[in-house]
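Saturday, quiet lab. Running sequence design on the structure tokens for the scaffold JK sent over.
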């Protein structure tokens, strides 16, 4: 990362970390999803990021993010894969024509992804989904210096998972298991935490 800008090479390195990290926890995510859904979330996430990590990225950071969206669309037709692609598309639109993303705009980019995913998935905050995690991270990044952003995002993702333990899922197939879902982590929130953990694994 050059100064306070995130460029194509930074994005490419981040995708490699997430691909490796989600590949390592694919079985865990499949098992969590299997209790409330189809049991393929780990496959969806790991395949999507692996595809994105091996996709050539243009220098225009907006177009690079668009390629990430296309990567997920190529390898996944699941609802979570579609939502991730939608989030990447929203960020791509906001960053189009730029060679880098200013770190102080990250809260807005995360917020744009959240809003687009809410519209696409017909979800609301409080439904116990990945939307709640994105909302928490967007808020946690506000006003933070670049060097504090990763730790803040990680804390927000962890706290969201803990906060919603005991609450029923209100969206997707998981809502059909309302009582059971209350005692379990939401698979989408868990997957998001694992993604952020992989991002945070970069060398200091």
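Result came back. Writing it out in full:
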């Amino acid at each position: 990362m050059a100064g306070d800008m995130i460029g194509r090479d930074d994005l490419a390195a981040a995708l490699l970390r997430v691909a490796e990290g989600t590949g390592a926890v694919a079985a865990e995510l499949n098992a969590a999803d299997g209790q409330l859904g189809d049991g393929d979330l780990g496959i969806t996430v790991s395949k999507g990021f692996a595809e994105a990590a091996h996709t050539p990225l243009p220098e225009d950071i907006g177009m690079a993010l668009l390629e990430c969206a296309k990567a997920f669309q190529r390898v996944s037709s699941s609802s979570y894969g579609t939502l991730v692609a939608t989030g990447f598309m929203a960020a791509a639109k906001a960053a189009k024509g730029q060679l880098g993303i200013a770190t102080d705009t990250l809260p807005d980019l995360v917020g744009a992804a959240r809003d687009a995913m809410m519209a696409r998935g017909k979800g609301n905050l409080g439904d116990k989904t990945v939307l709640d995690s994105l909302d928490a991270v967007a808020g946690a990044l506000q006003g933070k210096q670049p060097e504090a952003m990763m730790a803040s995002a990680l804390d927000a993702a962890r706290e969201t998972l803990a906060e919603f333990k005991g609450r029923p899922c209100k969206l997707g197939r998981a809502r059909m298991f309302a009582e059971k879902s209350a005692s379990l982590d939401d698979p989408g929130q868990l997957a998001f935490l694992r993604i952020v953990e992989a991002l945070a694994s970069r060398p200091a």
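Notes for JK: The longest strand covers residues 5-7. The longest helix spans residues 146-163. Ask whether to fix the surface positions before the next round.
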